[in-house]
Amino acid sequence: MTSDVIPRAPAAGAPETRRLKGRGTPLRERFFHLSLLASLAVGVIFLVALLAYVVVEGWPRLDSRIWSNFPDIINPANAGAQSAIMGTIWIIGFTALYCLPTGILTAIYLEEYADPLRWYNRAIEINIQNLAAVPSIVYGILGLGIISRGLGFGQTVMTAALTLSLLVLPIVIISSREAIRAVPRSIRDASLALGATQWQTVRRQVLPAAVPGMATGAILALSRAIGEAAPLLLLGGLTFITFNPTGAQSAFTVLPIQIFNWISQSRAEFTALASAAIVVLLVILLAMNSLAIWLRNRYARRW
Amino acid sequence: MKSSTRSLRRATAPLALTAAVALTVSACGGSDAGSGGSGKEGEKLSGTIRVDGSSTVAPLSTAAAQLFQAENPGVKVTVGTSGTGGGFEKFCAGETDISDASRAIEDDEKAACEKKDIAYEEFQIANDGLSVVVSKDNDFAECLTVDQLKKIWAPGSKVNNWNQVDPKFPSEKLELFGAGTDSGTFDYFTEAVNGEEGKSRTDYSPSEDDNVTVQGVSGSKGGMGYFGLSYYEENKDKLKVLKIDDGDGCVEPSSKTVQDGTYKPLSRPLFIYPKASSLKKAEVEAYVEYYVKNHADIAEKAQFVPLNSEQEAELNKALEKLQGQ
């Protein structure tokens, strides 16, 4: 640690860097360390700025009205987002119900049962990776054409949840596979050597060990689903609805659609309302993430 | 660590089972519960009315829905904003009861509805007008032709001084304020002026909040902006409105010129299209009746230009015809 070279800017200090090469590279170390911090700061600063902005903007409306009242276009002071909050919770609940079992079972098949040398298994793999990159609006079109009209589910919570499930399924599958792959081979071998069947090995050894990774992936996937507005707008997510969903067959709206709708209103009260709704959405997200962290810590194990 | 594995082992089996059961139950519930909801009989009105379509008309339909629901708490009205075209697409697929439209139904949409045997009524419920405003300090511009507007607002336009608009104007920096790209106002203005919805130059100050446009334009001598006519009328003391020449001379926007259609091309009628088969349901008929009877009040609340007496007479005639059925 030679303190005299540290304060220099890396660009100006180019000759010094070369000179210092032989004696270890404290300048490079520092530079690397700083670039790590800078990258971290980009995310954190923008997040903090966003949070501060929406909280300040939405502060006048951050009270019980936001969750106890329904939308009101005539009198913004009475407006709330209860139908959107409940719609979001219903849809995310159903999405989790549809996509988590399907995604995790798919991941188990691909990791534990599928022969990676078979062409069809490789084709499935490539397709799943490609699906993760398909724009969400395309899933909206798919949902409208096949689920809503083709299967006749209409513009309902069920259609929305199925569409969002398809949207995030690749994320669930890929993250679950990573989690399963992280379980050491030796654990499986030991289990099989002791006479356990493959199913017993998966159920008793692999799955419990993979739960933390799967939980993280699942929450990432659901967090993406909760913020989606585009596919749901296409599916007939409503901008004015004054009742909560009562089941899979109800009409619905979700928070992102409600926020979008309020922001495009010309009256300033609605903009504050939109900010308040953004805060509510972030709180729901935070609660979901906390659950994931709790799950991860509860089931974490070291080898 | 060991205990947590065991507890999970116990927990997973019932969990998976519950999920599977719930999945099948909800999947089965799909078909039979779907047809319910609307059209229930009873002494009090109940049921669901699905309205979708133009985002411009949505505030009107929403205000009508809100006032109507206050009187008929049993009826659930939902309003969506798929856009006029998207609204008709759903309407002619039989998915909605009423379609909001910021233009009359087009021939191919009529054909699509006919194909599905969907008959409908047409009601004009309000007028929409846009005003182009400049600062009070602007003493040179009185009237612009549509071509001049297009020159200013066309995509990629390099016009940044008033003397480029018209050589007779003095050299004054042009500062543009306009609607944000999410608004119906933006769609409408770009379509009327630039000929294609959504096409606009992008180097102006956009705002979803018309108050920002008011402040921006009133504070700069070379400023120019556009928004709904009702907004100008509320801010008459701060702004000056431009006359628009669409080839038939300069016309100043006002409730009158918007209503009679002489203020072109920045005025248009707004429609609702209720489905004939839905109108047979008491709750849909009651909603449309309420909507039509209170159209002036609703237009005012949603800041639109109400109908003129001629349009109103036509609307009442259409309503009478409906009630006579």
From TrEMBL, chain A:
GO terms for molecular function: phosphate transmembrane transporter activity. Its main location: membrane. Keywords: Cell membrane, Membrane, Transmembrane, Transmembrane helix, Transport. The keyword RNA-binding does not apply. Belongs to the binding-protein-dependent transport system permease family. CysTW subfamily. This is Phosphate transport system permease protein PstA. It is a multi-pass membrane protein. It is found in: Cell membrane. The chain crosses the membrane at residues 31-56, 89-110, 131-151, 157-175, 232-252, 272-295. Pfam families: BPD_transp_1. GO terms for biological process: phosphate ion transmembrane transport. The keyword Flavoprotein does not apply. Residues 85-292 form the ABC transmembrane type-1 domain. InterPro entries: MetI-like (IPR000515), MetI-like_sf (IPR035906), Phosphate_PstA (IPR005672). CDD domains: TM_PBP2. Part of the binding-protein-dependent transport system for phosphate; probably responsible for the translocation of the substrate across the membrane. GO terms for cellular component: plasma membrane.
TrEMBL record, chain B:
Gene3D superfamilies: Periplasmic binding protein-like II. The keyword Transport applies. CDD domains: PBP2_phosphate_like_2. The keyword Electron transport does not apply. Residues 1-27 form the signal peptide. Involved in the system for phosphate transport across the cytoplasmic membrane. NCBIfam families: ptsS_2 (TIGR02136). This is Phosphate-binding protein. It comes from Streptomyces coryli.
